[in-house]
């Protein structure tokens, strides 16, 4: 008999570890060990797990309660749970621990494109003015995202060696993230970006150049990291907290850090930048990702273009 917990760990520490990046593996590990294994039972024979068992796990997760409120998981999260189950049982079949794969009976949920939020031009101005008059260089990290479209992890991993003031570019070659490690401890890691396309060189606009040059000049030669908090590099949690605090003081609606990236993309589309260029600037694997993400902005831009016909008379 092969216990279910053993089969799960065999997949996590074997096949999966060799195939995906650490961040993805740790995310899958959390789903498997915190949600799937407790629901099925760590000592259950992996050969006796049925498709009904797996359906019950998915249904329970979709309708789990948080406090006194019922909270349903998003279709994307449910699909991620199903992906983990397929990985576990596919591995079990390949190892000869069972003949059939019960996870194949699970149907992925249909997902809808997310409605993205962006900052208005006025809100962007409030943030820029607040940072301009602030003496805290850490607050310049969100503005760099607004001017380059870089992800929070890419910005926090940025070193001065990645900044070329002569060519007016920044090179994205690594990413910082905060994740629960194998032993259950939350840790910060710096790794290569999420995909090959994410490794890119981004031209800097005049505002971005001025922003980087305005950072304490002693930091440029004394420290490697561009954004720091006292004696250590700025962490993901610190940056998120500072960003939220800044929005509150600017009286701007609270949004997540990724909204800055969406705002950068939206402003470029509004100014007629083509999809291929935008896709490369954002580090998307292909233009379909860019089109799917910003389809609403594209439609608005197209509508404004067509409406110009009414103004030709």
Observed structural traits:
313 residues, mainly alpha, 9 strands, single chain
Task: Furnish the topology, listing elements before pairings.
Layout: H1 4-19, H2 22-40, H3 51-62, E1 65-66, E2 69-70, H4 75-94, H5 121-133, H6 140-148, H7 152-156, E3 163-164, E4 169-172, E5 175-180, E6 186-191, E7 200-203, H8 206-213, H9 217-222, E8 228-229, E9 232-233, H10 236-250, H11 258-270, H12 275-282, H13 287-293, H14 295-307
Antiparallel strand pairs: 1-2, 3-4, 4-7, 5-6, 8-9
Helix pairs in contact: 1-2, 1-4, 2-3, 2-4, 3-4, 6-8, 6-11, 12-13
Summarize the model shown.
This protein is mostly helical.
Strand content: 5-15%
What is the number of beta strands?
Answer: 9
- The sequence of SSEs as H and E is HHHEEHHHHEEEEEHHEEHHHHH
Per DSSP, the total helix count is 14
Q: Evaluate the radius of gyration.
A: 23 Å
Mean pLDDT across every amino acid position: 87
Strand order, largest beta sheet: 3-4-7
Largest pleated sheet: 3 strands, antiparallel
What is the straight-line distance between the termini?
81 Å
In the predicted model, the low-confidence regions spanning at least 5 consecutive residues are 65-69
| Portion of residues within helices | 40-55%
Structural class: mainly alpha
How would you describe the shape? globular
Descriptive notes:
This protein is mostly helical. Helices cover about 50% and strands about 10% of the residues. It has 14 helices and nine strands. It has helices at about 5-20, 20-40, 50-60, 75-95, 120-135, 140-150, 150-155, 205-215, 215-220, 235-250, 260-270, 275-280, 285-295, 295-305; strands at about 65, 70, 165, 170, 175-180, 185-190, 200-205, 230, 230-235. The strands form four sheets. It has a three-stranded antiparallel sheet with strand order 3-4-7, with no helix packed on it. The chain has a two-stranded antiparallel ribbon with strand order 1-2. Helix 2 crosses helix 4 (about 75-95) and helix 12 (about 275-280) packs across helix 13. The longest helix has 20 residues, at about 75-95. The protein starts with a helix and ends in a 6-residue tail after the last helix.
């Amino acid at each position: 008999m092969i216990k279910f917990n053993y089969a799960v760990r065999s997949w996590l520490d074997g096949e999966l570890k060799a195939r995906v990046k650490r961040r993805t593996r740790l995310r899958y590990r959390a789903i498997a060990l915190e949600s799937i294994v407790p629901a099925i039972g760590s000592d259950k024979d992996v050969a006796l797990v049925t498709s009904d068992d797996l359906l019950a796990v998915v249904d329970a997760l979709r309708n789990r309660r948080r406090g006194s409120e019922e909270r349903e998981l998003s279709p994307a999260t449910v699909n991620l749970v199903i992906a983990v189950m397929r990985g576990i049982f596919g591995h079990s079949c390949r190892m000869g621990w069972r003949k059939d794969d019960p996870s194949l009976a699970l149907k992925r949920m249909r997902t809808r494109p997310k409605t993205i939020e962006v900052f208005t031009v006025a809100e962007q101005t409030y943030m820029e003015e607040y940072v301009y008059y602030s003496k805290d260089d850490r607050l310049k990290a969100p503005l760099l995202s607004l001017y380059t479209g870089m992800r929070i992890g890419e910005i926090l991993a940025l070193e001065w060696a990645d900044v070329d003031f002569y060519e007016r570019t920044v090179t994205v070659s690594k990413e910082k993230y905060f994740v629960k490690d194998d032993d259950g401890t939350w840790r910060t890691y710096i790794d290569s970006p999420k995909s090959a396309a994410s490794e890119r060189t981004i031209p800097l606009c005049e505002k971005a150049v001025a922003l980087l040059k305005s950072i304490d000049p002693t930091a440029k030669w004394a420290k490697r990291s561009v954004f720091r908090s006292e004696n250590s590099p700025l962490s993901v949690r610190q940056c998120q907290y500072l960003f939220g605090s800044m929005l509150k003081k600017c009286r701007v609606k609270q949004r997540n850090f990724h909204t800055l990236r969406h705002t950068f993309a939206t402003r470029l589309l509004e100014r007629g930048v083509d999809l291929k260029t935008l896709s490369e600037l954002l580090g998307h694997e292909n233009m379909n990702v860019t089109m799917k993400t910003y389809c609403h902005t594209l439609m608005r831009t197209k509508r404004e273009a067509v409406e110009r016909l009414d103004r030709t008379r």
